[in-house]
Amino acid sequence: MSNYFNTLSLSQKLEQLSKCRFMQQAEFEDGVNALIGKKITIVGCGAQGLNQGLNMRDSGLDISYALRQAAIDQKRQSFKNASENGFTVGTYEDLIPNSDLVLNLTPDKQHAAVVKAIMPHMKKGATLSYSHGFNIVEEGQKIREDITVIMVAPKCPGSEVREEYKRGFGVPTLIAVHPENDPENKGWEQAKAYAVATGGHKAGVLESSFVAEVKSDLMGEQTILCGVLQTASILLFDKMIAQGADSEYASNLIQYGWERTTEALKHGGITNMMDRLDNASKIKAHQLSEELKVILKPLFEKHMDDIMSGHFSQTMMEDWANDDVNLLKWRAETENTAFEKSTASTEKIEDQEYFDHGVAMVAFIKSGVELAFETMVASGIVEESAYYESLHELPLIANTVARKKLFEMNRIISDTAEYGCYLFDHACKPLVSSFVDGLDGAVIGSAFAKAEYKTDNLELIAVNKAIRNHPIEKVGAVLRDSMIAMKTI
Ligand SMILES: NC(=O)C1=CN([C@@H]2O[C@H](COP(=O)(O)OP(=O)(O)OC[C@H]3O[C@@H](n4cnc5c(N)ncnc54)[C@H](OP(=O)(O)O)[C@@H]3O)[C@@H](O)[C@H]2O)C=CC1
Ligand SMILES: CC[C@](O)(C(C)=O)C(=O)O
Ligand SMILES: [Mg+2]
Ligand SMILES: [Mg+2]
């Protein structure tokens, strides 16, 4: 097997990378009909497997779980997840031969082995689905010609796929049919019905390609979604401690601050998040964000280049072959950071205080979201997709940090995302540590704006204009207009 993307001609690469069409609600009028009465088997019952399955069953579909014999015998967490939620659980031999649709929701690292193990059991003409195109695009997996191959990729951690569904909303989702595997021309109707069953159509669905999904997904998760949150959490916590802040207060501000501040993003974009600040703080956050963008642009571009060339996936696959030595070492190191070991105060911090005392956090968010968006778009990824992979998904990742700090974020996201997050963090820390050390202490942990501060009207007008005119604000306004079922946390 070799990297599928790298076998394409330049024009094919560009065509697949730019495949992106925002779908209209009318296209989902058939609801889940294309999958009603079909036997659907999910392989793996982890972050995506369990939560997608719960949503799909609530949407009226017939869901079972195929697990490895050892997972059943040892009553592993995957077995408990499925059986304690009342699903039928069986081996590949028990369930796959009768399945019309098989969802491969095991970690990307396992996909080649899982495909090899399930393929002899799949009936002629069945469908195989993925929630991330890594196996097809980066590993060049070939699938039997009679099998239809689709992708339904929620742009969000598995836990939030369920939480948003229960709130009556959903998460933006990219769907695609693999051009090399659609023998009966049924993949599209099935992918649409699957997106409805998980609730994705309420948030927005893009007709995409495996290639566009993989390249944008890897970029979002490595940079703004996980990498920036990891680096900024660790450095800003250390900064507050060095300034003599109370450790429990600092811990609370970081752990819950990402969730509180990015909630404003989700509803009204960067403009709304910045409008939550007083004028002096807004101008300061904007200035810091511009400085951060200059420092971080080369790093964002390096990640995009390494993702496009296949260098990133090659190095990660080398770690897979080496028993995940690097991943496990980096995971352990994260558990030992001062932020991770700190305990957050239980005292209630008012919503507004997270903004007022978190000007530097807002600056990191703004710079990271804009840079991720700009870098993806410059590489041929369409704006709508870049918006979902940066701005819309960030609050959903921040929700996981609020639950149990970086440990929880890295536990919930895929191993692929976690590996890329550490790579980014290791390169980012040395780049921004002197910037953070040199920050005016008032931008984190206390109110920045002082009574004597005088706001320059012209400066404020220029800052507001720059914020509102960024292209992510334009596409975001259009996409959010269709998110009529969005709920507040
Ligand atoms: N994590 C997330 O939120 C997101 C993930 N995705 C994508 O979804 C897919 C699933 O990822 P995720 O939910 O994180 O995965 P998890 O790590 O949560 O999945 C673990 C599950 O896979 C099973 N499994 C592991 N190895 C094998 C194997 N060799 N054969 C059979 N089953 C195996 C485990 O069972 P056992 O008990 O036997 O070990 C367990 O049920 C990936 O493609 C990922 O990129 C997409 C969007 C977000
Ligand atoms: C956070 C990255 C992600 O792609 C996701 C949740 O969407 C993953 O791989 O976990
Ligand atoms: Mg993703
Ligand atoms: Mg991912």
Automatic annotation (TrEMBL):
Per UniProt, Mg(2+) 2 binds at 217, 389, 393
Residues covered by the KARI N-terminal Rossmann domain: 17-208
Q: What is its EC number?
A: 1.1.1.86
Which UniProt keywords are given for this protein, alphabetically ordered? Answer: Amino-acid biosynthesis, Branched-chain amino acid biosynthesis, Isomerase, Magnesium, Metal-binding, NADP, Oxidoreductase
InterPro entries hit by this protein? 6-PGluconate_DH-like_C_sf (IPR008927), 6PGD_dom2 (IPR013328), KARI (IPR013023), KARI_C (IPR000506), KARI_N (IPR013116), NAD(P)-bd_dom_sf (IPR036291)
KARI C-terminal knotted domain location? 209-353, 354-486
Enumerate the SUPFAM superfamilies for this protein: 6-phosphogluconate dehydrogenase C-terminal domain-like (SSF48179), NAD(P)-binding Rossmann-fold domains (SSF51735)
The job of this chain, per UniProt, is described as: Involved in the biosynthesis of branched-chain amino acids (BCAA). Catalyzes an alkyl-migration followed by a ketol-acid reduction of (S)-2-acetolactate (S2AL) to yield (R)-2,3-dihydroxy-isovalerate. In the isomerase reaction, S2AL is rearranged via a Mg-dependent methyl migration to produce 3-hydroxy-3-methyl-2-ketobutyrate (HMKB). In the reductase reaction, this 2-ketoacid undergoes a metal-dependent reduction by NADPH to yield (R)-2,3-dihydroxy-isovalerate.
Q: What is this protein called?
A: Ketol-acid reductoisomerase (NADP(+))
Taxonomic path: Bacteria, Pseudomonadati, Bacteroidota, Flavobacteriia, Flavobacteriales
Q: Which gene encodes it?
A: ilvC
